[in-house]
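Exercise 7. Given the components listed, write out the predicted structure of the assembled complex. Treat all entries as one system.
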Amino acid sequence: MSEEKLPKQSENFSEWYNQLIQRAELADYAPVRGCMVVRPYGWALWENIQKALDKRFKETGHVNAAFPMFIPMSFLEKEKEHVEGFSPELAIVTIGGGQTLEEPLVVRPTSETIIGHMYAKWVKSYRDLPILINQWANVVRWEMRTRMFLRTLEFYWQEGHTAHETAEEAEEETLKILNLYADFAINEAAVPVIPGIKSEAEKFAGANKSYTIEAMMLDTKALQSGTSHNLGQNFAKAFEIQYLDRNNELQYAWTTSWGVSTRFVGAIIMSHGDDQGLILPPRLAPIQIVIVPIFKNDDDREKVMKVVRDLEKDLAQFRVKVDDRDNLTPGFKFNDWEMRGVPLRLELGPRDVDNQTVVVAQRDIPGKSGKLFLPMENLASQLETILNDFHDRLLKKATDFRDSHIFEPNNYVEFQEVVQNGWAYVYWCGDAVCETAIKNETKATTRCRPLGQEKSHGKCIYCGKDAEYKTYFAKAY
Amino acid sequence: MSEEKLPKQSENFSEWYNQLIQRAELADYAPVRGCMVVRPYGWALWENIQKALDKRFKETGHVNAAFPMFIPMSFLEKEKEHVEGFSPELAIVTIGGGQTLEEPLVVRPTSETIIGHMYAKWVKSYRDLPILINQWANVVRWEMRTRMFLRTLEFYWQEGHTAHETAEEAEEETLKILNLYADFAINEAAVPVIPGIKSEAEKFAGANKSYTIEAMMLDTKALQSGTSHNLGQNFAKAFEIQYLDRNNELQYAWTTSWGVSTRFVGAIIMSHGDDQGLILPPRLAPIQIVIVPIFKNDDDREKVMKVVRDLEKDLAQFRVKVDDRDNLTPGFKFNDWEMRGVPLRLELGPRDVDNQTVVVAQRDIPGKSGKLFLPMENLASQLETILNDFHDRLLKKATDFRDSHIFEPNNYVEFQEVVQNGWAYVYWCGDAVCETAIKNETKATTRCRPLGQEKSHGKCIYCGKDAEYKTYFAKAY
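Answer.
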């Protein structure tokens, strides 16, 4: 850890983010432009995200598989909107085994095309449907402006690809996954996302409908944190995914795709962090509890370490780290683990051993007011409650922050003002002309029309024409 | 599943292997030459392999991370033997975002170079050592002759990369991992591997020493199933991984690397399968127990299915599948699951319900002799024992097969004969000239000199000169 101070979140959010990622050893810059190395602490966080999602996928009947990362260029060209959307961002292999390839291979930016090709081979009858496959994979998009976790050339994600008998089933799946994502974000990451539908302009290249979970970061910018797409029959027609239905007639299947990526790590950092550094949500934190032993001489050392080792065993149900580094002071360790966002710190000195107590510092409540003085007895169950409360507090804090930065301006002048430091929730006529004008004039884009919104009547914030739904507008990552 | 019969293992091992993989839906051919799609059943097997290895890595202090798959061409050139070994097999990205790249990017064939570059940045002092990092990744080697799982252009693996203070520690790590691999192979996959050291000619490009676990397949060919390399200071010097030692002097670190890949799925298939199809080792099998309900009318159906559903819950500690497909006969299902290698099949009909019994068919013992008739009471603990016995039987059978196909020929004429259908364990002088001559004349290569072998005295099987160690020779995948 560097001795220099972290930039203040409130003063330079962007530098705070960049430096924090490096100092907390979540990730580092790779020697290839726009790529990152995800370091062990960052990868452990991602592994916990993976576990939480994978469990939910499997509980809802999905299975994992692996499709090749190389896709023939011609495959991308089969779906017109898809190739238009992705061709500026492709990395292309032109040489293999010392030879120039006859057909260049694209490094997958996403896998609808190659998976569509395989589904066409596997699906013959309605009995073969639904197919509910997910893969955990790396993908590449040749972005010009990159940011750690938020937008890197190579990133890690899961991409689900399903095929169904009917349009209704495909829509049901798309929404089921959207709700699964929202449940994960809220109940695992304490990130209060808003599930909704994307505008035509913002949807996935090749989709009929794109749904999203949108989160507000602490600089009030929006982060699209996961998407679920209803692809209709677009890819089924492009790749000839056909099946004999219950009446023995040939039909095209209905497909969906959906993904959450390492971008979500960015969502966690920017939803909860503070001037001291990260604050990690307890259910995903690689280390939930750090134990810092405190002693001044060798006698005390032995006395304290014995109890610390016992404690470590008693707390085996949690992800615990004992910081027994002997070349650092307790004070340094406190700062270090605070910066790394560990939810709870247990401090244990000789007097605590005598009294059979322990000091618990809660990362999200600075100073003395966040300290708890607990009896050792029954510590695990006390800590379980404390961690759950911690999660609830994080979620409430992030929700309150978000809600206090969502505005409902009455006119476009007010709109222009509020989107400088918040989201606007306003009627919009749905016309891409207004959407583009707003984007050009304010940098705010449509984020989503939230699910479950009743149709109502109002005037478009931009053109004043009749509008039936309200939409979130915000500057976004 | 196709209705055509699987080729007999004894008649056409190679076709048996290829067709079985497709029929059991482990994998399928991808639209890119030499690539495979790992289907859900195959990927579930790989996930179980991953879990078993990852658990062992973490227990021995290793952590996971992720390094980029794109490596600047110049990095590979920094270690002379490494670039010579890998350059014929590279896939190269020359175009990114529509532009020709100034420096082409190699799609990683392995990651020593890019990881070496990062370690040089991270390591300053002896306090930063050891670094014990693993990654689960996809890699690409442009092979001309490919086989599902055994040799594909893109494959999946874990690659561990460690850096240490001393030569001794690096050697200790290399051997620790080799033994970890052997433990995994034997105790999880029931594949009786022989751990040993590779010859100079067969070692990894850039290593000082390469260790291997070698397994005998049922056609008696050898399969290198995992490798662990002591890289000495070769990569540390090429990438300047230097640290200040305890005397404040600058030293090069000592590094290792080690990997097990999806090739291991091939090892499992070819170690245990038979004419009926796969036989999967119970600790890794995606489905350990399949329950096939048997009934002829709707009354019986209800009666049987109720008990089947209860059973499914009682056996939640296992990976259980209930085959309730209503368009297939029990006989068809029996064959189908046998082909897919599920260790145990529970058959349950109305009479079993009345008697509170269940029929258990064991995949590795064909026909009636493999059937057990068990009381329902306490079934889970009975099945636990049965699965452990199954594992032990598989391991013993594979070990017996291997041992009965290892020969110790007295002269080169006998040698040439035995390597046609087995391995030869013979004195070899260690000279690459003899090794090459043997390879050219018999297609048998040195597999390894087994660990723990005492030095002794004999004559090289080829040149007759003095030799101190015996080495395994075999035809290999």
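Discussion: Chain A touches chain B through 58 residues (CB under 8 Å). The first helix of chain A runs from residue 13 to 23.
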